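Homework help board

Subject: predicted structure for assignment chain

Our instructor gave us this sequence and asked us to write out the predicted structure in token form, then describe one feature. I got the tokens but I'm not sure how to describe them. Can anyone check?
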Amino acid sequence: MKNKVYELALFGDPVSHSLSPQIHQQFARQFDLKINYQLIKVTADEFPLAVTQFFESGGHGANITLPHKQQALAVANNISIRAKQAQAVNTLFRNNESEICADNTDGIGFIGDLENRCHFNCRDKKILILAAGGATQGIVPEIMRQNPMKLFIANRSIEKAQQICSYENSYAVTFKQLAKIEDKFDLIIHASSLGHQGKTLKFFQHQVKANTICYDLSYAHAAQAFIDFSKSMLVADCYAGLGMLIEQAACAFEKWFNLKPDTQLIAKTLMVK
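My token output:
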């Protein structure tokens, strides 16, 4: 089926900023595959039907981004352990029985980028995550597998943070409570979508130490507000989430095609920090 064109898509809102089409096109070229990768902007109400129609019309695989990662659980017939643990989905595909299957590759992609590009290992570290949405749900199970010393999740609603903090040494706090936390963090992660509005959630100067690094799960302009704020707090280094995007995309591509793409060349091409 050399001339077959595989239909892929990203469902979310917004999606116009996404580099996923370029990333997957480069992956496909590594294996001489032909793909058509669409960006599909949908509301929460439109999402279930849009996904169903995509697969019924021959869709081969889909990525899910904000704000639909949790909602995607309901459209799948078969949900991976990782997606169940995260209670969030970023990858959909059909199995041999034509069931829609859900997985979450965000955590693996995040840890891979932390280790390969940021040279950071979560073991025995103190980590703070700002926001408790689907992006946080996607990465926390993999972070906790690395055995950090402490994980704090700060969120406006304490209940949402508490739902994710079901692990030993994990703590849920409100943003007001965060100000009173005296721990100095090794890693501070911004996981909200505020960057798309040029805004950011904030931490406090007394929580920074000499080698603290900051990481925004977003990338490009959406990460800039947090990176600018982090630099003003004199952290050791700041990273945007483009490397995570590439790594999680490679895991999704492998799910779709049973082929593992090389991420190093594309990382250089897209000028990942």
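Reply (TA_rk): Your tokens look well-formed. For the description, you could write something like this. The mean pLDDT is 95. That's the kind of observation they're looking for.
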